[in-house]
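Write out the 3D structure for:
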Amino acid sequence: MFDSLVDFLTNGLSHASWPMLVLCFLVTSQLTIFSVTLYLHRSQAHRGVDFHPVLAHFFRFWAWFTTAMVTKEWVAIHRKHHAKCETVEDPHSPQIYGIRKVLLDGVDLYRQARRDPSITEKYGRGTPSDWLERHVYGRHPELGPTLLLFALFALFGLWGVVIWAAQMIWIPLMAAGVINGLGHWWGYRNVESDDTSTNLTPWGLIVGGEELHNNHHAFPSSAKFSLRRFEFDIGWMMIRIFSAVRLAKVMRVAPSLDIREDVHAPDTDTIKALLTHRFQVMTDYFRGVTLPTLRAEFAHAGDSIKGFPRRMRAALSSGGRWLDNDARERLGNWINQRPAMATVMEYRARLHHLMEGRNGEAMLEGLKQWCREAEESGNRALQEFALRIKGYRLAHAA
């Protein structure tokens, strides 16, 4: 009897080998990641993809079973993050709470947000509200991980408890901590979005493609997170596989930006491209105008741009939005002492303000004037950018 008990605690009912235990953890955790990124995030929160009802319900069940996540709550909190990003109302911004709090205690921030029924009511509309959601998933969220614990314990004994504990730590740490924390703190940016989002790596493999966080903030409703040729989104790969077997239908993918040659004046196609790619336009401006002018300033002074703090370079790309008042004042004084930099920053501010408008005709007339004045500015980089921006148009992905 004692030997049987020890054998069960050691091996469970399956008597699985070490490779099988590792495989079990990898499969269960990857399924959870896909349930979050594909179903909760891309499908329910942003409507970028629709899944077959059977597959959709499996994802919904698995998210509840392995993380206690309720679809409506998760979707509502995430939508509010986009709506109030980097403000005091953002549920988990490291700019507000600090990187340490979000990275190490992101789950607590999630729990605080889910206790506020106004968030769920306002931002959680359109999510499932069937009998299972109301009476099982929504009413008893902790039941899912509890059942998972019993199942893993029965299969693998005490090693099942270890797998369960690892899963309970892994998902909150990577999703609530790393993506919400480091994804707004450290990494590279393809697009100068109105927040601090970053891409952690160009290869979205570990957290289902969520590593490409800056790309997502630039085009929230896109089912595909990768934007550049060298970037890879494993979540998008799975969507394509599901689409091939008719288990998924892609609703939205970010359109690419095309450049027409020899366009003499901005037109309605230009305005459509600017409205869709306003973040990319500002990125192009920084890379094509601000950065070359900055390099010229340092070269003229016989110095290297490497001596200019990286934080200040980033501030030039965002117009100083994320600096505190003292740092913003110092940057402004530095710019005002350099006429060429003052000119490009003035044109940047005008272009940014222009793209905030919603009247297409007024935008078109304003852009025509902006381009004319930029071409007459005497700044070669600014002149070349004015010629380039005229030819912008959308090239919709197939």
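The two ends are 65 Å apart (CA to CA).
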